[in-house]
Amino acid sequence: MSKETLKKVSILAISFIVVSVGAIGGNIPEIAKSFPDVPMTMIENLVTIPALFIIPSVLLSNTIAKHLGYKNTVLLGLALVFFAGVAPALIESFPVIFIARCIFGFGIGMFNSLIVGFISYFYSGNERAKLIGFQSAFEGIGGMSITFLVGQLLRFGWQASFWVYALALPMLLLFALFVPDVSYDERINRNKKGVSGQKINENQNNTSLLGVIGYIALLFVGVNIYMSTNVKATALMSTLGYGDATDGSTIISVVGIGAMSAGFLFGKTLNLLKKYIVPVSFSFMGLALLIMGLSNSVLVTALGAILCGFSFRTFIPYLFNKVNSSPSINPGLATSLLLVGFNLGSAFSPYGIAIIERLNIFGSIRGVFYTEAIILFAFAIVGLVFISISSMKDRELNILNNEE
């Protein structure tokens, strides 16, 4: 295996553990038996508390990288994930486990936003887009694989299942050996000049802070609707009498398959759809929810779920690729803000689902999916209008420049 391939693998490998926070959810009943004096809500917080520490850590990661360098920041984050991740396997003390889970979340946040930073520093154009898509796919594969391994290790006791986080150690070693260091100033300058060292056309790939805020709003809405699909799919099938909880788990799994497929195909999808990728993704996600709402069988619902996962994980890497291709903003800050928007959308999804249920004018559980589809179609139309106006302005600007 060449050094270049090892570098790519080492960068992508750390994505494997990014979405592993909730993997220990199946441990909760067994952990509760070991700590009968601890309230169940506190024990359940072991699953959710890391997410709260990811948000401030993501926001601080670029500041830390400015002083330590990008590589050292990633290595420090992986070290925290390793030690805090396996600590519950060694120490049977609830306060220690709770603190370890907080540190675990902080560690993930330290390198979460920097993964895209390394990709955008070393690669450009189609290669960058392809690797950002792969990074998204690796997250999905990692989440599913680690959850599966936790279930297998649970046979040996709930503490044994935490050994799954020892996977952070080989990731740390790979990254330390095969990924060169990047300083904060180099990262900013490279983004302004491009990987080749050539000055980027300021009229292309230009994203303003206002644009980043718009992307955060898109993420917030998209994540809320995506999460509601996972939550409501089982209720839809059981209420209509064609599925049960087991079928619901299957639906959640096939959503992941669609999402992973989108990640691996993102480079080709971007070349095909270009700037229309967001409205097209929202349109197909709306179509997916419409299919699920109209469905009367597990198979049709599964097909809708696959399309939903594919559409969702198509527009997300596009946003990260877009902000990391723009010379007019700090790419690290923009990436961190997008990740905060993603995590806030996930954290507040129960409230988002409640709002969507209030907006439901159809009076049935199918109507929840219809309402979500309408919202997505509306966003797709607004996106197309915005792109059309932006294209007209670009043409006018080019005409004026040519006249000069």
TrEMBL record:
Pfam hit, one: MFS_1
Swiss-Prot/TrEMBL keywords: Cell membrane, Membrane, Transmembrane, Transmembrane helix, Transport
Listed InterPro entries: MFS (IPR011701), MFS_dom (IPR020846), MFS_Efflux_Transporters (IPR050189), MFS_trans_sf (IPR036259)
GO cellular component terms attached to this protein's record: plasma membrane
Membrane-crossing segments per the record: 9-28, 40-61, 73-91, 97-124, 136-156, 162-184, 209-228, 248-267, 276-294, 300-320, 332-356, 368-389
Localization in the cell: Cell membrane
Protein name: MFS transporter
Organismal lineage: Bacteria, Bacillati, Bacillota, Bacilli, Lactobacillales
